[in-house]
């Protein structure tokens, strides 16, 4: 039972379902708001509407992107020094409180600009930056070195599957479940309910894991330390240990020669640069695509928007299968190239999307 209480997967699943509900409801609420309040002629209806939604999301995403810079660092430092639950609990509370604002916008007709304050509050409590970093650190601490990669892959799969399921049903909830003429109230309440579960689970159920011993540490406990054995040269273990150390190429390397442990600074700089550029391209493309699908030729509604978001989460499953298959044939560099080429091919297809099926092909 104690071991189960260290599992972070329930929070990952609950938070991602909540986020899927929120993303669909926010997009549709923003669209409905500007559709009712913006003045335009019939000929310019879709262009003006798309511009208004684009401006909203540009400001909203900029606030979300910049506000967590300092808070994420502070929370991470506090979490490392005291309790890792801080990097989970604080962002979850921030998500819960900040996303209450959308419910107020729907129920009491608050101005849509209130959501900029919601984004700022979300960012100041760490946002996804702190939350996901905390999840990865938690999973690493709760797993042995030999099973760490498997644990991280499982968490990614849980994240993708939860987002897939949440996105599939979000559009149906938005349309079919409402209070009066207030579409989206039930969907936002479902999202908030998932966040309440995550907050309560992280505070009262989740137990900070003790550092799991690595295989090397376990082996060291089974055997006497080399220093202890040295005190007894007649011990057979000493002879065997000495023989292993003499033949160890790392132990017997040239003193001070640590280059095999230090990666090239140029490679690190190029890796960071490529990751930044890739994220800029992918996030920018996703922002444009999410708004593009609302106008002709696709003219999607809430259900189709939910299905489109679900298609994006399928990437987590196909990526896992792709890595599993291609890792046997190519190295890490080959996997990186394959990933970038597949992304470029998908975005190229998206540039010519005029039918829904082609959107899914590009995804």
Automatic annotation (TrEMBL):
<keyword id="KW-0472">Membrane</keyword>
<feature type="region of interest" description="Disordered">
    <location>
        <begin position="218"/>
        <end position="238"/>
    </location>
</feature>
<feature type="transmembrane region" description="Helical">
    <location>
        <begin position="88"/>
        <end position="108"/>
    </location>
</feature>
<dbReference type="GO" id="GO:0016020">
    <property type="term" value="C:membrane"/>
</dbReference>
<dbReference type="GO" id="GO:0022857">
    <property type="term" value="F:transmembrane transporter activity"/>
</dbReference>
<feature type="transmembrane region" description="Helical">
    <location>
        <begin position="333"/>
        <end position="357"/>
    </location>
</feature>
<feature type="transmembrane region" description="Helical">
    <location>
        <begin position="152"/>
        <end position="179"/>
    </location>
</feature>
<feature type="transmembrane region" description="Helical">
    <location>
        <begin position="114"/>
        <end position="140"/>
    </location>
</feature>
<feature type="transmembrane region" description="Helical">
    <location>
        <begin position="185"/>
        <end position="206"/>
    </location>
</feature>
<feature type="transmembrane region" description="Helical">
    <location>
        <begin position="305"/>
        <end position="326"/>
    </location>
</feature>
<keyword id="KW-1133">Transmembrane helix</keyword>
<dbReference type="InterPro" id="IPR036259">
    <property type="entry name" value="MFS_trans_sf"/>
</dbReference>
<keyword id="KW-0812">Transmembrane</keyword>
<feature type="transmembrane region" description="Helical">
    <location>
        <begin position="57"/>
        <end position="76"/>
    </location>
</feature>
<feature type="transmembrane region" description="Helical">
    <location>
        <begin position="266"/>
        <end position="285"/>
    </location>
</feature>
<protein>
    <submittedName>
        <fullName>Thymic stromal cotransporter homolog</fullName>
    </submittedName>
</protein>
